[in-house]
């Protein structure tokens, strides 16, 4: 079977770890490259976290380290959510660097895209800094990008500011560049992330499935993206879920503008459902998710891991 080529841009991050696990062990996906970006914690820490995960799984996918800071904004990270390492809760062996390549993520993305025979789908599950730099520096890659399926944004309220979601709020200018790129974009944001939940019983099932489940279960004990009682939010896995199983989602194709000027609303994704902005649709927005089916899908997907 022909596998679908993808590149994941990530800032692991506990929910990133779950999303990457699913992608790496899915038989229909070919993860060509992994790139890291500053977000949940510093880019050095998230890169180390990603390398630890790959070693844990025995996967040799190449990793390229990306942007250290947002394009313009000065930001603090999300270590209050993910712990100071960004992936606290499991004792990984010491990090080693055999999967890390020398090129900067933006150069590695360019090379991978231009050298690929087929178009590649980009799956950013962190702030969009690397993708914005890529599109600005090497616009010739656009014709090699099949589509962008990203985790970020919200049609409603925020989890970073009143109206801004973390990944977009962390680097709004980067998001603006990506959303205005003319590329095919799907946004899986808080509207579905807040409903993509893992409860206590689910976590026990995941733990019992395999070694990856045990590791993820340990990370869940430190994850502050919700509680096991009220449900841990698997934000990043929603982008992978959309990639693999669109039927789980209710979507609308509409215009989304990124607020970069607002006094209180910088980083808001204005999902213009009623056409106030009088602009053409540019984004497929995931507005709802079938929660029970997502939960079943997540457990089945993680069961494919080692
Ligand atoms: Ca992330």
TrEMBL record:
Keyword flag Nucleotide-binding: no
UniProt KW Electron transport keyword: no
InterPro entries: I/U_nuclsd_hydro_CS, Inosine/uridine_hydrolase_dom, IUNH, Ribo_hydro-like
PROSITE patterns: IUNH
A GO-annotated cellular component: cytosol
Documented EC number(s): 3.2.2.1
UniProt KW keywords: Glycosidase, Hydrolase
Record-level GO BP terms: purine nucleoside catabolic process
Gene3D superfamilies assigned: Ribonucleoside hydrolase-like
Residue ranges of every copy of the Inosine/uridine-preferring nucleoside hydrolase domain listed in the record: 6-294
GO MF annotations in UniProt: purine nucleosidase activity; uridine nucleosidase activity
The protein's name in its UniProt record: Inosine-uridine preferring nucleoside hydrolase
The organism of origin for this protein: Acholeplasma brassicae
Origin organism lineage: Bacteria, Bacillati, Mycoplasmatota, Mollicutes, Acholeplasmatales
């Amino acid at each position: 079977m022909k596998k679908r080529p993808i590149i994941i841009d990530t800032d692991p991050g506990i929910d990133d770890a779950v999303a990457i696990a699913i992608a790496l062990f899915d038989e229909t996906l070919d993860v060509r490259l992994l790139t890291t970006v500053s977000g949940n914690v510093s880019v050095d820490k998230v890169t180390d976290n990603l390398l630890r995960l790959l070693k844990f799984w025995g996967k040799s996918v190449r990793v390229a380290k990306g942007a250290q800071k947002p394009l313009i904004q000065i930001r603090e990270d999300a270590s209050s959510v993910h712990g100071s390492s960004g992936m606290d809760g499991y004792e990984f062996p010491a990090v080693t660097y055999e999967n890390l390549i020398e090129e900067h993520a933006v150069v590695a993305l360019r090379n991978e895209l231009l050298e690929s025979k087929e178009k590649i789908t980009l799956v950013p599950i962190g702030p969009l800094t690397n993708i914005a730099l890529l599109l600005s520096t090497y616009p010739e890659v656009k014709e090699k990008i099949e589509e962008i399926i990203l985790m970020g944004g919200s049609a409603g309220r925020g989890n970073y500011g009143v109206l801004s979601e973390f990944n977009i709020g962390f680097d709004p200018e980067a998001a603006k560049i990506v959303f205005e790129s003319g590329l095919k974009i799907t946004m899986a944001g808080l509207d579905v992330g807040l409903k993509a939940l893992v409860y206590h019983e689910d976590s026990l099932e995941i733990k019992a499935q395999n070694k990856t489940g045990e590791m993820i279960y340990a990370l869940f004990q430190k994850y502050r993206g919700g509680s096991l009682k009220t449900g841990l939010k698997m934000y990043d896995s929603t982008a992978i879920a959309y990639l693999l199983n669109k039927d789980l989602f209710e979507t609308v194709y509409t215009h989304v503008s990124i607020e970069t000027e607002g006094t209180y609303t910088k980083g808001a994704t204005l999902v213009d459902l009623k056409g106030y902005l009088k602009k053409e649709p540019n984004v497929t927005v995931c507005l709802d998710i079938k929660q029970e089916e997502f939960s079943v899908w997540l457990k089945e997907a993680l069961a494919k891991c080692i």
